[in-house]
Amino acid sequence: MTNGTHTLEVWGDLACFTRPEMKVERFSYPVITPSAARGIFDAIYWDARREGDWVRPYFHWQIVRIQVLEPPRYIALRRNEVKDRVPGTAVLNKWMKGSADPEPLWADGGKDELGTDQKGRTQRQTMALKRVRYRLTAQIVPKPAFRAEQAAMNSQFVRRARAGKCFQQPYLGCREFPAFFEYVEDAVVASPPIALDQHLGLMLYDVFDLSRERVRDGDPPFISLFEATMRSGVLEVPPFESAAVKKPGGI
Prior knowledge:
Elements: E1 5-15, E2 26-27, H1 34-44, E3 48-51, E4 54-57, E5 59-68, E6 74-82, H2 88-95, H3 111-114, E7 121-142, H4 150-162, E8 171-172, E9 174-178, E10 180-184, E11 198-206, E12 215-216, E13 224-231, E14 234-236, E15 245-246
Parallel strand pairs: 2-7
Antiparallel strand pairs: 1-7, 1-10, 3-4, 4-12, 5-7, 5-14, 6-7, 8-9, 11-13, 13-14, 13-15
């Protein structure tokens, strides 16, 4: 840990960080987004308290820097995607308690073939990335009520990351693209970023309001964007509260 920040080296065979303007066909940014990078840190360590229908997070991860260690390489994929999702309330309240039998989510067919209201599947084209590797630097930003616990939060993350522990498999944009990680110590980093300068235009920053002290299941997305420019393979990420991050309503 350096100056309160943590660094992970992250890699994987496939990745897709979908541009929000591509609604039907997935087309990846050439670089991991801060939102996807935050998700990797969250998968290793995140803490919150549930208060009824609300969740009160203790902190959020602020991505500080993204270093690209492999040049962007695209690959075209065609995938079958299901249109429905398993109802979370049914899983928690009925299926896990045994009060109802689990209902399968059929990947093929729809109402005409299956006699159900399921929508079946659809084929979508994906322009994904292959053989990606990044060095991600982030820091814990505690909520006001938990600032006194920041040192303990940092220590907890270091213990988990060094041991390769995570409470869910980190992924690179899509859950079927797993991410592998290694905690980077304070020692001199051997592999430098790629020598690439590129203006990426408006990039998705996040889909949640990271400044909120309480969130509720089912809240609408809070889309924020920023002007992204990669210099010598390094993308500097502004703080979420910065004016450089464009938020709904100009917040």
